[in-house]
Amino acid sequence: YNDGAAVERRSTSYLCKSKFLGQQRYLRFDGIVVPQTREPILQPYSAAGFIFAFANLIKEVPLDPHLSYIFDGEEILYSVRMWTSGWDLYSPSKTVLVHSYGRPKAPRMWNTNANSWSTQKPIAEKRVQFLLKTVSADGTLTAKDIKPESLKQIQWYGLGVERSLEDYYRFAGVDPITQTHSENWCT
User: Fold this and answer.
1) How far is CA 71 from CA 24, 40, 122, 163, in A?
2) CA 178, CA 137: separation in Å to the nearest integer?
3) 27, 94, 133, 156: which is deepest, by most CB within 10 A?
4) Is residue 79 a contact partner of residue 132, using CB atoms and an 8 Å limit?
5) CA dist., res. 67 & res. 150, Å (int)
6) How far apart are CA 170 and CA 69, in angstroms?
């Protein structure tokens, strides 16, 4: 909508870009706008607010309730969990939904309960780091000192067994050790 009037889009978003977040050492991704296509486009990432699938996805890869107050990390983790469980990720062939992200006066989760944000977010980040096997610049696991609260019910919300994490990284064209990524997805 544009000032209340429906706007027909002849393009769609394609999640093909990524960058490593410095301290967390895992990926945050972004997209580009591409013309509509006849078929959905294979992509390495999936946005949390834009997942369309058969309901058995949620049974096979349930949403992790132990990622409280995390903003960066849940999307890459869910993308990896879906992919390692045998699900392929696609961009839609046309725009069916638009997310207006520019709401400067809207409340943000990190402002509504700052105490929970500062105590719960690091626990969730360690969980993501553990599952994604992120490494620090010297090559050691960033989650080596993980505490039990970051591992709650990990057997239910871990990676899949159809494909490996290492295969995902190769598929996505990212190297978590050198913190590099391929731009091939966007070409």
Assistant:
1) 12, 27, 11, 26
2) 8
3) 27
4) no
5) 9
6) 29
